[in-house]
Amino acid sequence: MSELRKYAVGDSVQFPLIDFGASDFEATPVTFVAGDVRVSINGGAFANTTNLATHLGLGLYQLVLIGAEITGKLILVSIKDQSVPKTWEDQAVAIETYGHASAQHQFDLNAPKVTVLVNEDKSDYLLSAASRAAVVDEVHDEVRADHTAAGSFGQGVASVQGSVTGNVNGTVASVVGSVGGNVVGTIGDLAAAAKASVNAEVDTALADIFLHRFITQASTVVDGAPAANNFDTGLSGAVANDFYKGLRLKFVAGSLAGQVRDVASSVGSDLTFGDPFTAAPANGDAFVLLPNTAISISAAGFWDELEGVEPAVAIASNATFRQIFQHLKRRFYNNVTQTNSLQTVHKDDSITPLDTMVVSDDNVTQRKGKAS
Length: 372
What we know:
The protein has helices spanning 129-140, 153-157, 192-208, 299-303, 321-333; strands spanning 2-6, 11-16, 37-41, 47-48, 54-57, 60-65, 74-79, 91-98, 164-165, 183-184, 217-220, 230-232, 248-251, 260-262, 265-267, 270-272, 286-290, 336-339, 342-346, 353-361, 366-368. The chain is an alpha+beta fold. Among the domains are: 2-98, Immunoglobulin-like; 217-296, Elongation Factor Tu (Ef-tu), domain 3, CATH 2.40.30; 321-368, no CATH class. The strands form 6 sheets. A 5-stranded mixed beta sheet has the order 1-8-7-3-4, with no helix packed on it. A 4-stranded antiparallel beta sheet has the order 11-17-13-14, with no helix packed on it. A 4-stranded antiparallel beta sheet has the order 18-19-20-21, covered by helices on one side. A hairpin with a 2-residue loop joins strand 15 and strand 16. The protein starts with a strand and ends with a strand. The model has no long low-confidence stretch (mean pLDDT 83).
């Protein structure tokens, strides 16, 4: 049995070695010396190979032949142990070449297709229907820029000139160039990509005249971790910073339904509120953006407003009125304990500390330190 290798291209061959006088592979790597591995080209004299074989593992070996050692039709490789007694049984590898006029097989087995060099009579070589269709497809898919010679068909199709009458059916990727004359007939429905392009142009035009300040916009919270004073939305993000600043956001669904806050700033579709909502919204909660006009609030609506989320830390020096009232309520209503000089105000659960103050008394003046 012969191995196949490409003519004059360096390559490797693999072979097993068997223990001398036995039937098992020579698993213990052997040491080759000059003369152990020789090569013959086209039946010529054997000569030492440039490289010696190496052990791959489990008694299998590999020999790397250079291109000059594969320049014949038939290459014979001899692997013989010159030592006495021998370590392995004699072995040989036969190689047939391909891919060259001087090779055993002239066809290049690595080529993706066969090239016919001479074919005088082509009368019987007819293309199949599928092949003809493929040729037509290639013609129609050819780039117009490669065929713009003056007066050629390619130059003619580079632009559509004259009048187009009747209906244009089917899907057209794009019409490049000028359409001169009248388009007579029916233009079908726009594809999704075309509609998106038109919508983008309209949105840009509306943004230029700030029409969003006169028309209510509806969207939802699109944020995996929204906060009471900041969250991302499904509004268009392709806008300038503070595009939505000054508008009023009103929730129409979810636990915050009915609550209204002014947008203090915006970055893309991300909105920030100077006056936080009473709690963080949920992802997907629906809202509308309203023009910033005066809102009438009844006395009942003001005094019946819910407190919101319980504060978690001591009040800040620049706290809002909501936060001030929240801390006042807890100082006079919640559990307050004092140990030595430390007074602690607890949260609504009467266990968790909210803030502490250091108390001192020198029998003349009693002091309470700032809450922290």
